[in-house]
Amino acid sequence: MTHNYAIDRIKFLAAMAVVLIHVTAFLETEGLATFANYYWYRHLLNFAVPFFFATTGYLVAQQKDTTSYLRRYLTKILVMYVVFTLFYLVIDAFIFVPTSMAMGASFPNALLQYWHTLSWVKVGNGQIGHYHLWYLWALFLASLILYWCVKRGWSPTQIVVGAVVIYLVGRWLITVNLHWDLLANGGFPKALVSLVGGYYVAKRNLAWRGGLATALIILFAYQALSLSDIHFFAGEFVLILAIWVLMTYVNARPGKSSPLSRWAAYSMEIYLFHPILLTIYSYSSNVDPNIEIQSHGWRVMLMTCTTVAVSIFLYPYFDRFYIQPVEKRLEPSLDLLVRKLT
Question: How does this chain sit within the bilayer (predicted)?
Answer without folding.
Answer: Multi-pass membrane protein
